[in-house]
Structure formats: structure tokens, C-alpha cells
Amino acid sequence: MAEEVKVFRTWSSPFALRIVWALKLKGVEYETIFEDLTNKSSLLLQYNPVHKKVPVLVHNGKHMAESLVILEYVEETWKGTPLLPEDPYEKAMARFWAKFGDDKIAPSIFHAFVSQGKEQEEAIAPVMENLKFIEEELKGKKFFGGETIGFVDLALGWIANLISVLEEIIGLKFIEAEKFPLLVEWIENFSDVPVIKENWPPRDKLITKFIATRERILAAAAAAPK
To answer: pTM for the whole thing?
Structure first.
């Protein structure tokens, strides 16, 4: 009997892409259910009643949410193409850097993206500081996982595509070769892997989406009581 593997996602979610990449790297066949987050399906609300968002993985009737949690489940369930190292310390550090991306890098970049003027200028410093940490982590490596793509690469994979979209919209450059040569090289190596580049969302649609997102947030901030 064939396994039931379903991924609930949106076309643009960088967090859901982690699951897509992991399943494809491991050769796992799955069904994609695209969600409209302005009109969430009853199944999405049933499977993720806490956060009510994507991604959600359903495997043989069991469902789970949160992309890093799902990534670990995928790693432990399908052993082909390991994503985490065997060494306990290295495994712990991989989890640390993956969480660092979600807790520090993503919020700092998004804050800089949806601010302007003096607030934006002040928001850039934390972005640079956070990027320096992962630049250091790449020393002597092709990927964060070594010579092959691993858990941290998938967790930080959104950087390889989405940051350039945000940069184009606001006319700022976060990642330059002079400041972050290893990160630039990693972006090229990561983006050149077929499973990765074949599943990027359309760039023009991302630009349109994030322009609208930025305008909406700036308008709400301007209308808020001072």
C-alpha cells in the first residue's frame, strides 16, 4: 500500500519550500495541496488549529506543523540522503543555526524591509551582524552541511532567493561579495542544485506580492495612533 504524504503549502511560502526540498532530495513522492491563506481550507484548520498556517505535513493520517519540526520528522522517517550529521554535537549545532535563521535573521531582514527613513537605517545594523555569524559558519565549507546540502542549508535556503527580491524592492543591498564572499558563494552553489532551482517561486510574482505586503504594512503604521 502506497504511503500517504501530503504537503499543505502556498506558492510563495519559503518555510514550505524547506519541506518540498527535503522530500525531493530524499526521493519521497507526495501530493501538494495549495492553500489560499485569505480563505483557509477546513483541512488546514483541522490539521493546524494552533497556528492556522502552512506548511503542514500529513503522513499516513498523522499531521504536523512548523517547518523545522517537519524537517526533523522527514529526516527521521526517510533515511535516504541524510540531512543531519550523526555526531550529537554537530547535530545540535545544526539545529541551533536553523533556529537562529528563524529567530534572528528573518525578523531582522523583514523589519528592515518594512521600515523606511531613519528607522530603516537603524534596522540594517542587526541584519549585518546576523549575516556575519553565518558567514563565519561557512568557513572551509561549500554548504553549511559540508560538501553536500544539509539541514541548515534547507532552513536558510530562503536567503538564496528571497533576500534579492526584497533588496530589489527597497533599493538596498544586504549581501555583497565584498562583505560576505562566502555567503555569496554559498548562494550560487545552493541555487545551482537542480532540486533547489527547479522549485523556486516565480520571481516576478514574488516581487508583486512583497511590494503589496510592504505597502500594506507601511500604510497601517502610518495610520496607527502616534
So the answer is: 0.96
Count CB neighbours of 138 within 10 A: 17
In the block, cell 516581487 appears at 207
Q: Report cis status (omega within 30 of 0) of the bond before 82.
A: no
pLDDT tens string 39-81:
999 999 999 999 999 999 999 999 999 999 999 999 999 999 9
AA identity, residue 94: A
Residues 6+ apart with CB under 8 A from 82: 75, 150
Asked whether residue 222 is assigned to any structural domain, the reply reads no
Distance CA 51, CA 49 (A): 6
Task: Kindly report the backbone phi and psi dihedral angles of residue 33, in degrees, each rounded to the nearest multiple of 5, phi listed first.
Answer: -115, 110
Please list the residues that pair with 14 across neighbouring strands: none
What pLDDT shows up at residue 1? 57
Closest CA to 84 of 157, 24, 30, 146: 146
Domain total in the chain = 2
Buried b (16+ CB within 10 A) or exposed e, 62-88: ebebbbbebbbbbbeebeebebbbeee
- The verdict on 212 and 108 lying in the same domain is yes
**Separation of alpha carbons 96 and 84, rounded Å:** 12
Bridge partner list, 5: 59
Q: Which of 44, 77, 110 is the last residue of a domain?
A: 77
Strand, helix or coil for residue 124: helix
Judgement on whether residues 121 and 163 belong to the same structural domain of the protein: yes
Q: Specify whether 110 is located in the same domain as 154.
A: yes
